[in-house]
Write a structure and sequence with these properties.
Layout lengths: L11 E7 L3 H12 L6 E8 L5 H11 L3 E6 L4 H11 L4 E4 L5 E2 L3 H11 L5 E10 L2 E8 L7 E5 L3 H6 L9 E4 H6 L12 H12 L4 E14 L13 H18 L4 H22 L8 H13 L1 H8 L7 H7 L4 H22 L1
């Protein structure tokens, strides 16, 4: 469908939180300015940047009257998105991270999907990941191959999460009236998973529970290894994960999800415990080795962990299976060391 065949009477707000991202910011804003869908307002929320990001925002605003810049003291990405929602004037809004970018038909893709399926509650699209500046490295994530559109329900949220959809806010067309009516906000007290919980609350607030997903990957997520959960130590990671998973569990119960979804939930929850265990042993954790072992062992003795493990249905090596049930992380640690040593010896032998 040609760009001019889509009704462009609807104003779409584009919310972009900005913090110290001068390297990529021009690429991001340019990709929005050059959208095929022209009836947009672009809200750049400068979150107290200490580099040239704020200046770049102002320069763009002087060149395009669709751009509005808001400067605030550093308050975090959730506060920035909340301010953007508050200031937005469009019927719908989308979120774009300032180190990412979108393809020229991104907004048209979402609006076109909304026009095709006006009765569906939720409009999503797909995305691709790019490592740094290497666009040839792109990995595309879609809901279903060989389909223009895919249809799901909110009670299949874990099936969608397995496809890497439903966690972030950057490929969803939000109805601002729903957000305002139900006073839905990003929780600024959280530093992990607040966008996922925002999506759950939004899914719960829309009467029509159906989700239609355009399998066009028009959002481009730039992956950078700059202190992610897989590389950085968090001393409160357990609390963060357990809080988020407990909130998700309440929604799954309310939505009466299937056994398949529950299996995916419990498996996901167990894998998060494994992340916590690994996090404990990151070099940034200055605690003594024995205290690290005790910390993980205490987790394994908790009712929350035991309940999660009892419902885990994924595959675990039989030896690890016993270790994870032992209430002592010593056995898990020793088996992990032996496993890594075995892998190293096998690789060395192959050379």
């Amino acid at each position: 469908m040609e760009a001019n065949s889509v009704n462009q009477n609807i104003l779409i707000s584009v919310i972009v939180p900005v913090y110290n991202v001068e390297k990529y910011l021009n690429t991001c804003i340019e990709s929005i300015v050059n959208q095929e869908y022209k009836n947009i307002e672009i809200l750049l929320i400068d979150d107290g940047s200490t580099d040239n990001s704020g200046v770049i925002c102002d320069e763009w605003a002087s060149k395009d009257n669709r751009i509005k810049v808001f400067h605030q003291k550093n308050s975090g990405v959730s506060a920035s998105r909340n301010l953007g929602i508050q200031k937005a004037e469009g019927k719908y809004f989308i979120c774009i991270d300032s180190d990412d970018y979108v393809k020229p038909d991104h907004i048209r893709n979402l609006v076109e999907t909304r026009e095709k399926y006006p009765y569906v509650g939720h409009i999503w699209c797909c995305f691709e990941t790019v490592t740094g500046d290497n666009e040839e490295s792109a990995t595309i994530f879609v809901a279903d191959d060989n389909k223009d559109y895919s249809f799901y329900d909110r009670n299949q949220i874990y099936t969608l999460k397995e496809k890497w959809l439903g966690c972030g806010p950057c490929y969803i067309l939000y109805d601002r009236d729903v957000i305002i009516k139900h006073n839905i906000k990003m929780d600024t007290s959280l530093t992990l998973g607040e966008d996922t919980l925002f999506n759950y609350e939004y899914l719960d607030s829309v009467k029509n529970t159906k989700i239609v997903i355009s399998n066009k990957a028009t959002y481009c997520y730039r992956y950078q290894d700059n202190g992610t959960l897989d590389t950085k130590y968090y001393d409160d990671l357990l609390d963060k994960y357990e809080y988020n998973m407990d909130v998700e569990k309440k929604y799954l119960e309310k939505w009466n999800v299937s056994e398949k979804e529950w299996d995916l939930y419990w498996n996901s929850r167990f894998y998060l415990y494994e992340k916590v265990f690994r996090n404990t042993f990151r070099k940034e954790n200055q605690k003594l080795f024995l205290k690290k072992l005790k910390y993980n062992s205490d987790i394994m003795k908790s009712e929350s962990y035991k309940n999660t493990y009892s419902k885990f249905s994924g595959y675990i090596n039989p030896l690890f299976k016993k270790a994870y049930k032992s209430n002592s992380y010593v056995w898990v640690y020793m088996l992990s060391k032996i496993s890594r040593l075995k892998s190293y010896l096998l690789r060395s032998k192959s050379y």
